[in-house]
Amino acid sequence: MTSPPTIGVESVSFRTSGTTLLDDVTCTAPAGALTGIIGPNGSGKTTMISLIARWQKPTIGRITLDGRPVDAWRRRDYARRVAAVEQHSDTELDLTVEQVVGLGAIPHGSGWGSPVDRRTDVTEHLDALAITGLRHRTWRTLSGGERQRTHVARAFAQRSAVLLLDEPTNHLDPAAAVDLLAAVRDSHHTVVAALHDLSSAAMFCDHLVVLRAGRIVAEGTPDEVLTTELLADVYGLDAEIVPHPRTGRPMVVVCGTVGEERR
Ligand SMILES: Nc1ncnc2c1ncn2[C@@H]1O[C@H](COP(=O)(O)OP(=O)(O)OP(=O)(O)O)[C@@H](O)[C@H]1O
């Protein structure tokens, strides 16, 4: 794996079908860190991931890896450098878990069903996501959470420097969600993850970017960003931020919602 880059989003706007989905967004995902993109439904998190993944192009502005614009890479080289897991990614083919994870190596030219070192590689990623026991299970027999973990193992197998994850803890039970985010955080990728769960964002992210209606509202460490005022303003949540009794990291304690007048 090459060294993880810093991702720069520079004055990016994205418009489609006459609608502005992102409006003059500037933010950074620091190298080797886990950056969480948070914000209410429809605030532009998936759009941001799709632009960094190069699935769509910004209408204005640019996105860079270590200062180099993302469109400067050939498609195959970019696929080696950046692995992405979509929110509703699925596969039509009824592959086994081992084969799906092996698909991650395709940008490197080896594909699945190949030699012993590839099997070892796949085993390592199955272990990291605690799905070794599912190795020979076929896709259609997997639960939502098992599919999600398989997709992340596939992204690990891509041996890229950047991981883009759209709601990676979707479908996961609490322990599986914690294990997945811990594995991602410890993976030494530059990670950008769209997250809904504020407790997970507070616990695992090094850096947070907050979106509302396609605009950046705040950016910084969880300590800097997660405040009672911000959660009331952006989400309409009545919440307290208290230090975690063991780690000291901020913890979001939701008490209810606030009235319209406070938003
Ligand atoms: N092709 C499109 N044309 C018009 N509007 C779109 C299009 N695609 C997405 N949108 C709108 O853009 C906004 C941002 O969508 P996006 O999926 O990026 O939000 P999100 O923050 O990921 O939402 P969620 O948390 O619900 O997944 C939403 O209001 C969505 O309805």
Automatic annotation (TrEMBL):
On the tree of life, the source organism's domain of life is Bacteria
Membrane-crossing segments per the record: none
Matches recorded under PROSITE patterns: ABC_TRANSPORTER_2
UniProt xrefs under Gene3D superfamilies: P-loop containing nucleotide triphosphate hydrolases
Name the Gene Ontology molecular function terms of this record. Answer: ATP binding; ATP hydrolysis activity
* Alphabetized InterPro entries for the sequence: AAA+_ATPase, ABC_transporter-like_ATP-bd, P-loop_NTPase
Keyword annotations for this protein, in alphabetical order, are: ATP-binding, Nucleotide-binding, Translocase, Transport
ABC transporter domain: residues covered: 7-238
The record's PANTHER family line, in alphabetical order, gives: HEMIN IMPORT ATP-BINDING PROTEIN HMUV
This chain's protein is named Iron complex transport system ATP-binding protein
